[in-house]
Design goal:
Elements (H helix, E strand, L loop, with lengths): L1 H40 L5 H33 E6 L3 E7 L13 H10 L4 E3 L5 E3 L2 E6 L5 E6 L13 H12 L15 E6 L2 E5 L18 H4 L23 E9 L7 E8 L12 E7 L2 H9 L5 E3 L13 E7 L2 E7 L9 H9 L3 H6 L30 H10 L3 E2 L5 E3 L2 E2 L1 E7 L2 H15 L4 E7 L1 H9 L5 E7 L7 H4 L19 H11 L4 H18 L2 E5 L2 E7 L26 E6 L2
Parallel strand pairs: 2-11, 2-12, 18-19, 18-20
Antiparallel strand pairs: 1-23, 3-4, 5-6, 6-8, 7-8, 9-10, 10-11, 12-22, 13-22, 14-20, 14-21, 15-16, 16-17
């Protein structure tokens, strides 16, 4: 009864509260609307007055936000950067055929490239073109200057895991010296005794002192344990050379793939894997492929499709200069492009004619038209080379003096401007390789010589045909490049004994001078640099007086790549094969790396 009474008392209060609540709800809504009208909507009328203030705050907000984003990105760049990383397949295209990987027989660009990657040598050239050890740690020479002792680096092994020792070195040179083996290196190693003293040292005993001898020890070494049972006469054709060669170089043989039904369409791809125990350090590339093409058009097409990482062009396509994605790696060669005057030709046998031909050519102008920077060649030695003497160089450019020399020698101009003597016109044929640079240079030579009354016919030939013409001495004058190298021993190009066609001598001018012969012999049979300079001076004087050739310039080797090849450094090369001197350090891939 008490609970019921209490409930009854609460009912009037609830009714009163509910009545007040319903009355308060409209009043609150009205108040909200009044506030919105007063403090928000009515103030829109004042917006034009305060717009500068509002815009200023908005701009400040945007600026602060931009700075925050920029700082985050900057910090990200500080802690991370794009850097080269190991890996990637490197494919290089070359025109030619693969025939032999052995360093005893490799002569073509394709064969030499494969051989250089597979086989290691006692010595090689570094990025400064200095002779450094590859398999060898160094050498010493005895007091007679005839005995060289070469020390091998420790723990050398072949790519099949067998230790590499001094016996392998002695075996290699023994095969080279064997006439039955028919090695292309045979002539350079005649009369030299090679003996393994122990597993890590080998001696070379020379019949005479030879100052340039250390530079001869740059050929690849072959394994005795795999080839000792092969007869020397079969060494050139043994399957080792083409199916599974084993060396000690930075890359090891993996496989070869040949495609194409005919010689015109045939292509070869030689794939090599990194040799991780190479004494110069494990290569960073995952694979190296040499792609051999039958002709330059095939190489060009493949390079444009970006199927190749790099290309070894004889003639660089003209439009590559406009492609920023293509990198032209320019290597100066320690070589000389020259015009050799064959002195067996009756006209070129006249020293006055040779001097006039040299003096009428503006070599500096020819260099300016090449399209790349290089050094002029003023004589048989290169600028800066041991023995080079700026006072003993070829005659300086002077057309008037050149013409006067011909006048004095009895060569008089006829009606068409061509000079004659005893009824014979002053004319000859210039041979050169059929490539754009040779065409450019030969055109300028023809114009220069025509200006003094000399008629010159140019015969451009393929590389193969030109080599046959050179071997048979079929030219009158020859526009050609010779490899000189670091050492000034140019005996093979200018000594009279080197003109013999039967021995494939390299004295292309047929130059004969007793004074030059004696000097060349004396210069190469001395070790002391200062003494060699003195001994070579009579040769330079004779060369200047006789003018057997016209020195032009040092050629360059252009190596085109798609993008940057990290570790590939442009420097002076003795031959374009030396581009691989530090191939174990090349990289072509990149990734964001965190900096610590």
């Amino acid at each position: 009864m008490a609970r019921h009474s209490s409930r009854l008392r609460k009912i009037p209060f609830l009714r009163k509260f509910t009545s007040h609540k319903h009355q308060a709800e409209p009043s609150f809504g009205v108040r909200v609307e009044d506030a919105a009208e007063r403090y928000f909507f009515k103030r829109f009328d004042r917006l034009p007055v305060v717009r500068r203030f509002v815009i200023g705050w908005l701009l400040l907000f945007v600026l602060l936000w931009g700075c925050l984003v920029g700082q985050i990105r900057a910090l990200d760049g500080h802690f991370q950067s794009l850097q080269p990383i190991p890996g990637g397949i490197y494919t290089e295209g070359i025109v030619g055929d693969f025939t032999n990987a052995s360093p005893l027989y490799a002569t073509s660009q394709v064969d030499q490239s494969v051989s250089h990657l597979l086989f290691a040598s006692l010595f090689k050239y570094d990025d400064s073109n200095h002779l450094v050890g590859d398999l060898a740690s160094g050498y010493s020479v005895d007091s007679t200057g005839k005995v060289y002792t070469v020390q091998l680096k420790p723990n050398l092994i072949w790519q099949d895991g067998v230790p590499l020792t001094a016996q392998d070195v002695a075996f290699t040179y023994g095969i080279i010296q064997n006439p039955d083996a028919l090695s292309v290196l045979n002539k350079s190693w005649q009369g030299i005794k090679v003996a393994a003293v122990n597993d890590s040292s080998v001696t070379f005993t020379l019949p005479n002192v030879l100052g340039s001898f250390p530079y001869n020890m740059t050929n690849g070494i072959i394994p005795e344990h795999l080839l000792k049972s092969v007869a020397p006469g079969e060494m050139r054709s043994v399957s080792f050379n083409t199916e599974n060669p084993v060396g000690a170089g930075p890359f090891s043989w993996h496989t070869i793939e040949v495609t194409g039904e005919s010689p015109e369409t045939r292509q070869s791809q030689i794939a090599m894997s990194p040799f991780n125990q190479y004494n110069g350090g494990a290569p960073k590339l995952a694979s190296f492929v040499i792609h051999a093409f039958h002709n330059a058009d095939q190489l060009d097409a493949s390079f444009r499709k970006q199927e190749l990482t790099a290309a070894n062009f004889t003639d660089i396509p003209k439009d590559t200069a406009d492609n920023k994605a293509i990198v032209t790696n320019d290597f100066l060669l320690s070589a000389a492009d020259m015009v050799f005057f064959k002195q067996a030709n009756p006209i070129l046998a006249d020293v006055a004619v040779r001097k006039a031909l040299v003096q009428s050519v503006n070599v500096d102008a020819i260099i300016d038209n090449l399209g790349y920077a290089t050094r002029p060649v003023r004589g048989p030695f290169l600028l800066g080379q041991l023995g080079y003497d700026k006072t003993q160089t070829q005659p300086a450019f002077d057309t008037a003096v050149a013409a006067a020399k011909l006048d004095a020698a009895g060569w008089t101009p006829r009606g068409d401007g061509i000079r004659t003597k005893a009824g014979k016109p002053l004319q000859f044929t210039l041979y050169a390789q059929n490539m754009s640079e040779s065409r450019l240079v030969s055109d300028q030579l023809v114009r220069a010589w025509r200006s003094i009354g000399v008629k010159v016919t140019v015969r451009l030939q393929s590389s193969e045909d030109l080599q046959r013409s050179i071997a048979g001495r079929e030219y009158d004058a020859l526009l050609y490049g010779i490899s000189i190298g670091t050492d000034p021993d140019v005996f093979v190009y200018w000594h009279s004994s080197q003109y013999d066609v039967r021995s494939s001598g390299l004295n292309f001018a047929g130059y004969k001078s007793k004074a030059a012969d004696v000097s060349l012999e004396a210069g190469r049979t001395r070790i002391e640099p200062d003494l060699r300079v003195v001994k070579y001076k009579p040769f330079l004087q004779a060369w200047q007086q006789d003018t057997p050739a016209l020195g032009l310039y040092q050629p360059r080797f252009d190596y085109l790549t798609h993008g940057t090849v990290y570790g590939l450094k442009t420097h002076t090369l003795n031959s374009n094969i030396d581009r691989f001197s530090n191939v174990q350090n090349w990289e072509i891939r990149q990734a964001d790396i965190t900096n610590h």
